[in-house]
Amino acid sequence: MPLHPDRLFPVDQATRELARNIFATIEGAPIISPHGHTDPRWWGENAPFSDPASLFVTPDHYLTRMLTSQGVAFEDMGIGRGAETDPRAIWRTFAEHYYLFAGTPSRLWVDHALSEVFGIAERLSPRTADAAYDAVAEKLAQPEYRPRALYESFGISAIATTDGALDDLRWHRKVRDDGWSGRVLPTYRPDAVIDPDQSDFALNLDKLGEMTGCDTGTWQGYLDAHRSRRAFFKEMGATASDHGHPTPRTADLPAAEAQALFDRIRAAKAGPDDAELFRAQMLTEMARMSVSDGLVLQIHPGSFRSQSVAVRNAYGADRGFDIPVPVSFTEALRPLLNAVGLEPELKVIIYTLDETTYARELAPLAGVWPCLLLGPPWWFHDSYEGMRRYRASVTETAGFWNCAGFNDDTRALCSIPARHDVARRVDSSFLAELVTSHRVDEEEAFAIAPLLAGGLASRAFRL
Amino acid sequence: MPLHPDRLFPVDQATRELARNIFATIEGAPIISPHGHTDPRWWGENAPFSDPASLFVTPDHYLTRMLTSQGVAFEDMGIGRGAETDPRAIWRTFAEHYYLFAGTPSRLWVDHALSEVFGIAERLSPRTADAAYDAVAEKLAQPEYRPRALYESFGISAIATTDGALDDLRWHRKVRDDGWSGRVLPTYRPDAVIDPDQSDFALNLDKLGEMTGCDTGTWQGYLDAHRSRRAFFKEMGATASDHGHPTPRTADLPAAEAQALFDRIRAAKAGPDDAELFRAQMLTEMARMSVSDGLVLQIHPGSFRSQSVAVRNAYGADRGFDIPVPVSFTEALRPLLNAVGLEPELKVIIYTLDETTYARELAPLAGVWPCLLLGPPWWFHDSYEGMRRYRASVTETAGFWNCAGFNDDTRALCSIPARHDVARRVDSSFLAELVTSHRVDEEEAFAIAPLLAGGLASRAFRL
Amino acid sequence: MPLHPDRLFPVDQATRELARNIFATIEGAPIISPHGHTDPRWWGENAPFSDPASLFVTPDHYLTRMLTSQGVAFEDMGIGRGAETDPRAIWRTFAEHYYLFAGTPSRLWVDHALSEVFGIAERLSPRTADAAYDAVAEKLAQPEYRPRALYESFGISAIATTDGALDDLRWHRKVRDDGWSGRVLPTYRPDAVIDPDQSDFALNLDKLGEMTGCDTGTWQGYLDAHRSRRAFFKEMGATASDHGHPTPRTADLPAAEAQALFDRIRAAKAGPDDAELFRAQMLTEMARMSVSDGLVLQIHPGSFRSQSVAVRNAYGADRGFDIPVPVSFTEALRPLLNAVGLEPELKVIIYTLDETTYARELAPLAGVWPCLLLGPPWWFHDSYEGMRRYRASVTETAGFWNCAGFNDDTRALCSIPARHDVARRVDSSFLAELVTSHRVDEEEAFAIAPLLAGGLASRAFRL
């Protein structure tokens, strides 16, 4: 039995007992998933998943990166030209290396999914690989394991996807047109039409113009095109935008300078800092639009994408070679904050991969600016230790109410219940420790727990 | 009863028992407060405090910033033009939002002050707000709640204020002239005559010249004026200077370059880096003067002040919008250290808001340079978790004896006993954990505890 | 009795019991010491150590720096012109200040060495100083305390030294020629012929040319000379090179630019960034050679050496004034990684003094690049708290198998068993905590323990 009912709880017996009691009140709370990367097509089409390997292994960079680190070829994970096509072979490769995940969150997530979602009692290993494969494959053929059924059995009450500005949101429309009760929201992620360093940027702006009828050859037309797409996304249910910039830099240029900057970029005459400056300016423009249309602005900065050029060229993006860099927010956010930071309607959610910013900058920032909320521990820090460091670093300065609650940020559908389970256990444990060290009262801990398990996320994302 | 006698102690029973025993030996030790921001006028005039709101809420940026973060208007906290003037209304606003402080040090401090200083049994809430207000207001009218009486009932043995170089120290003189037994020391904080970026810098230098009879139009006269003011402060009891620079950068320019730099700044012909360079040079000049006059040099770097221009303009400084930035000391302190770092009489106390410097730089620096001492966890880190991180990061490389002991650094008078209480509890717990993990012996822990509770502070500040 | 059998174990009783049981299975495992600074002459000559002070105190910068920080003169520690020459007097000075080490790893190491290696029952203090001195001195005269005997009684199975590129490795040869069974391996540390900022760099390159018969006046000849020395080191048993650069920067210049850079440096016409760029380029060249010859590449970056110029001039290097600086690896390692990072034969071990890089950069890097391994907590972080932060920060993203295992990195011979003892205790405790919080199973913990105690180090260093 891989899952122990007391997993992730404190070892001290009294604290563990309290953590268990707190957790019991939130264990079954509906899952609110306001930021993530599930494929909208799953929800729209509701087709069965084809096989265990393509559901669990091949697309999950948390899993493939660990195998890469120990010399497993991408091809053996089903990635790239000439890759293995037999899902069972891929699954066996994964199972052979599953011991590598000891002590990692992926281990908790996969254990949880196999046990709780697929009813598999034994831990994955070379010995159990085939039986596990068969069990998962058998279930995937059943209607209860189609995406919408999983949404329901997972107890999800709302889930957001992440969608390019040029996306037609057809699958979101399909969800709506089908009259299915699930709530699947798009999120406006316009990186491809904001980041001049992205390939096809100019082409993307042309398409943006066509889609919106705006003249994206001009600064004002370009901004209007964003407004138009944001309105469309909002109409389709979006409550937020999201921005994956290399840095958190923002800018608030005088109108003429912003226009000249846009013109240089559009004319392919950009100087060396212009792309960065343009992204910086656009964060402030997005914030201004948020003040008008109410979309919550999310900033996910500080990942150096595709560090290995050879891997990106041969196997594409999202193969585990995205590596964090140091970031600092105090100076970077200043222009945006001075432009619109006191607007009562604005909400900006900040994420970080640089944990040094938690106590040094983000908690002080969120602990005073009314527009700012701290996103949950992100990516590599979406983990037992990562969550503990986050709460210990953030709470004393920002409290609980300046946090945006948990979100799972995942493209691995079956890990969603596991990720919320981990977060709820760690938060229950943190609250229990506050109580047994007499920093909060027991009744407060029980009152705060449901906020952390969903209430704050609802409030932050206007769900 | 908001205060539990075992608060902040470890949960493990044996360790808790030991922490309790260690704490019992230092709980009642005199409070040494060698760095802080109480108003000298309180001590000199000894007038009653007017009301609970202006004592607790309005001037305390720890409290107001949290309310600001949740959208409470400054005016409702009694700040700014047209602000609420009824202290009871301000107090009610505070009480309505008091739940926000769950898990923060402010909560521990306010709970402690209301309970231990004002004898209020119930936690502050909208329900208890009026009763608490009445109880505090009633006490404030009594002679036992005037500043000097509080000094005595708090068990303070010495308290330092922080005073501008142009201050006439009239209230310190009044304390002395009155023959009161309390020890209230000024601290020489010359930022306004050292930082060319401060408003009125040139005017301040003119005033400094008038006060001292030195020609502050020349570099040597300017330095002489500092010497003169330092001598005056020392005569009035000061044992330390303090410097709140944006960065910890120091410089040790050749004499001619330093003079030319001063001349450029005095002539309003400064280049872009000149203000920073001048501050850097002046830290080394201050250190040189410290070698002569024995004042301990404190450096508080790395806060970006008044990040919101609109808030600063409308509501002034110290409104919670001071946000830390990354700092590094190794390179920054090198000029100063190579100039005077081996002088046996020099003491330099370093504070940081960037906790990454604890283990990486400050413990290694203080663990070798005889002049350097580490200040206690500062500002946002003056907290349970902050103190634990500090001890865990610093002790293994710097030991206990290279630390400057605790100081409360507060302008909130009634939080002084609370802050020392928290520090003593956390230190007792840390020592107890060292013992139960067999890293120090029990008798050593009992010997070190009084050092952390006051001995090191006395030694560091020559009190 | 200074050593408690449960030292460094968790306080929770069930977790402590488990940690004890795990530790029992690895306590006696052979010591693998693949990186360190013991003197090869000790192993080659096998002469008795002269006295307690020169064995324990004078050369150990961990110890002398703490005394320096509290004002003890170098001379009183036997360092510098006119220094104390009576080892007993030096020992007494050390003993008088031994209380300073409470809570530090040095205290654990010295306690362990005196107790376990020299059988001294009481803790060092002014009272016990002379008796301890006599006991150590008496033992040092016995054959059981000569270096090779200590190697054997410590249970060392292999130990690497760190040797300059120009070293003739005579003592390693002597070990081999004597037919002694101990395994003493050199490590290729070519800083003096790679770092243009080192004194005598040009002279060193001339010597390198003479030693190898290569024309070190040309870029290709210079590279050939490295190849030649690496081959010699490898023949003498080396399995690794080591590089102590100021930063982790790497470069991969086009051949013509690299040659031009070398020519500028060789002609003493280097520009301001050239030394740094040359070091950066050479890391990549070393990695390329590693692909060919199989030597494992170690990078130890980020120490600002000899911060006090006066101390360096008067007392030499390694006097405790080496202070860490902030580093970042993501961008710095990119050129090297893109050049050779996917080569299956390459192994690169990264160390850091900047703990912020653990979770932010190093675990993500080692968790995907097949060539990268994380070195153990280094220098100031080779400690109880340092190791705990390391495991907590690194494991969730990199797992255990992307770590290079422990190495003691010491020049203090008698601290070797102590350092491995600390590491094994902390790792046993960490594993026990993983089990009691149900993150790994008990049998996994017992399987991982011997890897951490030696298996990973063997694998990483190809021993």
From TrEMBL, chains A, B, C:
The keyword Isomerase applies. InterPro entries: Metal_Hydrolase, Uronate_isomerase. Its EC number is 5.3.1.12. Belongs to the metallo-dependent hydrolases superfamily. Uronate isomerase family. NCBIfam families: PRK02925.1. PANTHER family: URONATE ISOMERASE. This is Uronate isomerase. It comes from Jannaschia seosinensis.
